[in-house]
Task: structure prediction
Amino acid sequence: MTRTVTILSPAVLAMLAMLAMLLTGASPAWAKCGPGPLVTMDNKGIVLQSIGATTNAILLPTQTLAITSGTSGCSNDGLVKEEYEQELFVAVNFGRLSGDIARGQGGYLDSLAELMGCERAAYPAFAALAQTHLQDLLDLEAQPRAAVAHLRSAMTAHPVLGACTRIS
Result:
């Protein structure tokens, strides 16, 4: 009697991993950097984020190379590189962030100020500056890189926010 061993293809394994991630709400490092998020970076929502994670799972050798070499938005530990944190944060949280900006306060706004390297004492100045630039930021919603660049530029010229450490 011979036994037949069935080996699941990489695509099937990727889909099973994706299903497990969606069911558990997990967000592994391989879903946050590499070619997948770069393809869907200017988009938000669970479907597009899932496509990004699935792309990484299917392109596993590329993802491994990105983590190993520190390219495609990955650092060598597989997490998002520091220079992309602000853009990724804005892309993923734009709706809630813009609500905080409109109110002039909130956890998402404070988190972005922290990612910009501002001291806690500078958060009110950051909130006021962001609120002043809200319409420009709303116009740049689909372009997180441009929105972050716009904020950084305004912060550089500000007497208090120019001291934030992650705006250059």
Residues 82-103 form the longest helix (22 residues).
